[in-house]
Amino acid sequence: MFGLLYETPPEWVARVEATSLLDLLGDHAHCELKAAATMQALVAKNPGIPDIVQKLPRVAMEELEHFERVEAELRQRGGTLREADTSPYADGLHRGSSATRTSLLLDRLLISHLIEARSAERFHLLATHLQDRSLAALYQELLPSESVHRVLFLRLAQAIFPEAKVNDRLEVLRRMEAELVPTLPFEPRVHSGPGGGAAA
Ligand SMILES: [Fe+2]
Ligand SMILES: [Fe+2]
Questions:
Q1: Which ligand has the minimum distance to the alpha carbon of residue 148?
Q2: pLDDT in tens, 54-102
């Protein structure tokens, strides 16, 4: 599901819920902010590509709306937004891609596609398995939008680059992502490792 090669075990949700839902929400709020910043940077760096200039500002606004929604939920639950932590997931993807990439823009679009896909996978798991059904409802509400973003980034790559080049590079990055996720440490964060000794 979601076009990913590594499937997160549902036990990840129980680990998150047993650790800290406030930490999950704080991390999630920062993910939405970073997503909006990434889209704005893509527009600023590619002013000559109409598809990017015309489509990504709307997505950036949606991500900021998600930020507002998640930050409000965090606050209602007694949490406060803290400074962003570095992301071993996003850092790992960018480091992995830079070793073999031929186009910075193609890799940025495909990495955004994969991050949206992994977010959608995690939101789906949270919506299905969280015992806190009110938070599950929030993830159910946000899931369709991340699924639309996932497809949009792939379509953008396909509109700008030759199909074979997109397909070949996507296979490389998809494999790299699937190898990275199980090696990440477990934390109550949207893109953390699965925990439970899965990296062994
Ligand atoms: Fe979002
Ligand atoms: Fe998104």
A1: 2
A2: 999 999 999 999 999 999 999 999 999 999 999 999 999 999 999 899 9
Instruction: Compute how many other C-beta atoms are within 10 angstroms of the C-beta atom of residue 57.
Output: 14
Q: Return the higher-pLDDT residue of 109 and 200.
A: 109
DSSP 184: S
Q: What are the boundaries of each domain within the chain?
A: 11-183
CA of 58 to the centre of ligand 1 (A): 12
CB 17 within 8 A of CB 130: yes
Q: How far apart are CA 80 and CA 74, in angstroms?
A: 7
Mark 147-172 as b/e (b = at least 16 C-beta within 10 Å): bebbebbbebbeebbeeeebeebbee
pLDDT band at 196; cut points 50, 70, 90? confident
Cβ < 5 A residues, ion ligand 2: 116, 146, 149
Q: Tell me if the pTM is above 0.85.
A: yes
Residue range 11-183 in CATH 1.10.10.60: no
